[in-house]
Amino acid sequence: MKIQLTNENASKYALLLILGTFIIRILLASFTGLGIGEAYYVRGSIFPEWSYFDQPPLFLWLSAGTIRLFGLTNFALRLPAVLFFAGTSWFLFLCTKKMFSARAGFYAVLMLNLSIVFTVSIALWFQPDAPLMFFWMACLWCILNILFPSVETSPHHPRVYLLWVIVGILLGLTTLSKYHALLLLAGVFLFLLFSKSQRHWIGHPGPYIAVILALVIAFPIFYWNAQHDWISFVFQGQRAGGGESFSLHPEWFLRSVLGQAAWLYPWIWVPLVGQFFRSYREGKTNLNHRLFFLIGILPVAFFTLVTLWSNTQYHFHWQAPGYLVMFIPFGGWIETRLRPGDKKSRGTRRWIRFSVIFTCFITIILGLHTTTGFWQKNGPRSIVQHFGGSEDPTIWGVDFDGIHQRFEKEGWLKKDSLFVGTYKWWQAGKIDVAVGEKKEMLVFSSDARNYAFLTHPSKLLGYDAIIVDNGDEDDVRNHIASYFKSIKKLKPIPIVRGGVTEMVFDVYYCKGFHVPDSVTEPTAPVFRQLHGLSPY
pTM for this structure? Predict the structure, then answer.
């Protein structure tokens, strides 16, 4: 049966699409392992704080609630992300419907759910991006209703003030989700500044009420940072600033652009980027497009340009809030191309069908491979090896149950005066989750991230430790051994998937954790804290 999408039934089909993808993600959330970033954040949800080293606290608080309701499972950790993305999709529909049409809203939601960075990374994983996108889009919905009301309303009508209050609350929650909120505020301000008919809002109390409310709601971030030398702001500033030495790296910039294209899928990224040019051009006379352009361009431009001098590595999702906004005019553009009689309608329908099939196919293949490891021949491992790597990156999306089994077998979980350690922060989370929250975790490198604030090493003096490390043995011998009276290498722990050993973790039993007089890495938070200094 052929479905005819109209403005009358588009809301129904948008809701069905959102519900269908929600159910699929609930299943994926339950049966797939935690990635590196997800595992790293788990201890922060088990032991909630006012804020954290590298992220604001909201997403960790939310999962702290769900794991207390449903237990410490992957499903419980990811449930808030899945719920919030369903809400994000609905607000995207509402915004697009208001500014274009209901049919355009459906297409905007459809394409958003076909883009891999949104439909998997943001919509499924236990990370700060899902609440960021939800509150960002909900805030934009309220702003659209203030700036472009359906019925002409006095700027001083009580309803307008109420909307500004809601904007302030949502902006505060956006800030509690991720620091990107500043760019949303900047985009709206630039729009008001450069739009003569909207400039009166700069002198209106509403925006200032909203900003004050947002700052009050974001108080936990400032409170925690004030107690920790503003380290979160310093850390994020250094990432954007590129460190102490400044030099240009066009290869980093190119990597960022290509990475964004890959994460969005090139056949979605190219026309989506086209919306920036279209909105800039039409924004000269059309206020709708001007607003979309100014809010959308700031995250994309800022986080892309900084890669010229700062090695942001593979964080291609940092630009995502800007792309999210552009799905609004994107939906309107698709609807125009699908109008009866348009010569481009057939090609557009084929493009949409291809996007649906490809996204479903690649999600199923990668999901099955991550879980079972069936794609050994010419799969991700071969691709990585071609570029000089060694291991299949999807193995980091498997829960390392073998580590837990080894700890149980050796009786280490029952030994009270024993903690777990490793050298690299990015493998600490995977080990930590595998061992369980009852054992403290220390990261011994200079880059310990949030682990430097979760356990003070002085409380572990005199303890023994199991050091688990996937890397160079020199890391352990040179940077960890001096903290202990003795260290003994034990039988390694293999990480097996589908009957194949994918990687191996070295294991060391270390006795007598103490304060060393000197170490080869004196900037390591563990060393600094043991000598009464702040972690960083």
Answer: 0.94
